[in-house]
Amino acid sequence: MKHWQLNKEECGIAVAVLDRAGESTNSLSAEVMAEFAQILDQLELYPPKGLIVRSAKAAGFIAGADIGEFSQLDTPEKGRALVARGWDLFNRLAAVKYSTLALVRGHCLGGGLELALACRYILAVDEPGTKMALPEVMLGIFPGWGGMLRLPQRVGPAAALDMMLTGKGIDAKRAKKMGLADDCVPPRVMEMAARQLLLSKQPRRPLPFVQKLLAGPLKGVVANGARKQVAKKARPEHYPAPYAIIDLWQKHDGNALAAPAVVDRIIQSPTAKNLLRVFRLQERLKGFGKDSDFAAKHVHVIGAGVMGGDIAAWCALRGLTVTLQDQNLERIAPAIKRADALFRKKLREPLKVRAAFDRLIPDPTGAGVAHADVVIEAIFENVEAKHALFRSLEPRMKPGAILASNTSSLKLEDLRTVLAQPQRLVGIHFFNPVAMMPLVEVIEADRADPAVVRAACAFVKQIDKLPLPVKSAPGFLVNAVLAPYMLAAMRAVDEGIAPETVDEAMLAFGMPMGPIELADTVGLDIAMAAGKQLADGAEAPRCLLQRVEQGQLGKKSGQGFYAWAQGRAQKGSAGAVPAGLAEKLVQPLIARTQALVDGGVVADGELADAGVIFGTGFAPFTGGPLHYREK
Prior knowledge:
Elements (H helix, E strand, L loop, with lengths): L3 E5 L4 E6 L11 H16 L4 E6 L4 E3 L4 H4 L5 H19 L4 E6 L2 E3 L1 H7 L3 E5 L5 E3 L13 H9 L1 H10 L5 H7 L4 E3 L4 H10 L9 H7 L3 H13 L9 H12 L7 H8 L2 H18 L10 E5 L3 H12 L3 E5 L3 H19 L2 H10 E3 L11 E4 L5 H11 L8 E4 L6 H4 L9 E5 L9 E6 L5 H13 L3 E6 L6 H17 L4 H11 L5 H8 L1 H11 L7 H8 L13 E3 L2 E3 L10 H18 L6 H12 L8 H6 L1
Parallel strand pairs: 2-3, 3-5, 4-6, 5-7, 6-8, 7-9, 10-11, 10-13, 11-12, 13-14, 14-15, 16-17
Antiparallel strand pairs: 1-2, 15-16, 18-19
Helix pairs in contact: 1-3, 3-4, 3-12, 4-5, 5-6, 6-10, 10-11, 13-26, 14-15, 15-16, 20-23, 20-25, 21-25, 25-26
């Protein structure tokens, strides 16, 4: 066989090892699955004592179905055939008489997890890379190969629906705790543990009585609750897949083939096609920096304000040693407090939280500069202040270290004039909130060193963000396209349309937040300053001027366009949205995006779409602003 090896051990155990030919990760192509069917054929003739399914790839178990095959589903028949292929094969695996075990090390996603669920036992290897998820919903589709049937049976319907409707992953320890994995062991004992568990005839942990009720007589209650939760985040006309998952589980026990009309509607939907496009764009962004062997161990951040402090915390969370510099410890303290909340939320385990804390070191004197592989400047936006800082930093930095600025508005060409090696300065522009926003713009000045830009992209990838190379220009890509959009929104308020109505128009369009609420969140003084620079000399909207003059700066002051309480905007009724309002407001954003592509600020339209989606949250189901315009 081309992709699988089948080994029979002396003790009578068979081991099926997947090593997809010509690929760095395993995925379930038609050919891979046909070969697995051959393995089951062989084992039917000569049944083993048990079967272990595992991966030969360092990257992980199985990343899911072969995404490339999705784009070939151009007829309803092909879509149904793809669902039937996995549903039938994994039902066959689940029905074999001998014991079966999936040895899960590294990522186990989508169809990979559905294969594991069809085994009697799942053994998870406890290391940072192990992650289990059913992320199909993020591609606008559903887990059609048995995940909707078997995951609720293992972990109960509430936990299963949460995984399927969000696509979020869980680690090995959590998988064991919730009953998804039968056990969780360190790598050094995984071989022995797998064989012991396989032959143990140990019964599956039964679902608690309450979970059985929720999976049976109370199924409708669970489904209705799930629909209400989904409705808070996704409208059915934009994202039909989560609603389909709930229906298929409630009405057909997760068998999508029992509802062929649903299969056709979801697989052929524009949302699925556009989200597949967004996935490919994301993979393209992940490719930047692959051609650099740069890897940071120590990051030094100067400026412990909201941006600098949160960048430092994120780098520590991702395993790097971080020194955080500001004028004194009092200025660093709030950043440490926010880091504490981030670590507890993301890591949960006290030992891991403590380890992250140990990596984040307050450094008022800047001693960390000499040891850092990356030095990030995140002080206030003032050329003279940054010049003074760069003059003091450069002589203390080690050769080969990256000097980066998180500036959002100043040109790198103006900032680097004081450097002996100006080509070493690069922009690494994060977005607020740092922990939530996946995109980081990597800014390349005129005559920059391409190796430094590649190294900066590699660093961004190292901390699990998406790097987007852009040329040095006011606002780069993301802020430059947001400025005319927010200006248009405030002009609408000047024309007498209520802020709530403007926001509702864009929420209905598919934006994650309305532009007026966004301005309040960013700060109206910051919106005003950005507008002066990026609005091509246009006058500031009256509604913005009046509020800034009165000190009503938005969320941070408790009052802006909205009153704020407990971190939430207190909105009135939106009322009826005027026809065409959303189109009118989004046009300036689309036009500016195209202008930035034409001007070479970003390399091409695909990357511009990726940047605007991952940097602003622009409705992903549209495929991006330029793609949306072409529809």
